Amino acid sequence: MVARYAGVCRRTGKAIKVGDTINYYGRGHAELADGEAMAVDEDEAAGLERGTLANDRRMAKRGLSVTRFSSGETMTVNSRGRCEDAPCCGCCS
């Protein structure tokens, strides 16, 4: 979101100016948004390839839910709770 008030980034300690792009967490807790750097850190923190979580969000906008398990298995489900390629394997029928 766009900052309406000046402040200090709680992550870096840098000044936030009016009009800067920030991540707002409520009650005065804000961080400067780094754009692509934030996405890279998010993917790295999850142990995934760069751009993976952004792709999952694009799929969610199309009505698909992506679940990632610690085993590395990925399951994609449509809005009706069925596999993306249902009913080919029979697990949802």
Quick description:
Helices cover 23% and strands 19% of the residues. With 93 residues, it is α+β, with helices and mostly antiparallel strands.
Structure description:
By secondary structure, the chain is an alpha+beta fold. It has a domain at 36-77. Helix content is 23%, strand content 19%. The chain has two helices and six strands, in the order E-E-E-E-H-H-E-E. It has helices at residues 36-46, 52-61, and strands at 7-8, 15-16, 22-24, 30-32, 65-68, 74-77. The strands form three sheets. Strands 1-2 form a two-stranded antiparallel sheet. Strands 3-4 form a two-stranded antiparallel sheet. A hairpin with a 5-residue loop joins strand 3 (22-24) and strand 4. The radius of gyration is 18 Å and the shape is elongated. The relative contact order is 0.09. Mean pLDDT is 75; it is low at 35-40.
List the helices and strands and how they pair.
Blueprint: E1 7-8, E2 15-16, E3 22-24, E4 30-32, H1 36-46, H2 52-61, E5 65-68, E6 74-77
Antiparallel strand pairs: 1-2, 3-4, 5-6
> Which regions are unreliable across 5 or more consecutive residues at pLDDT < 50?
35-40
Distance between the termini: 43 Å
Spatially, the strands of the biggest sheet line up as 1-2
Q: Specify the oligomeric state.
A: single chain
What is the strand content? 15-25%
Main beta sheet: strand number and arrangement?
2 strands, antiparallel
Overall, the morphology is elongated
Distinct helical segment count: 2
Structural class: alpha+beta
Mean of pLDDT: 75
Number of strands: 6
Helix content: 10-25%
Series of secondary-structure elements, N-terminal to C-terminal: EEEEHHEE
Q: How large is the radius of gyration?
A: 18 Å
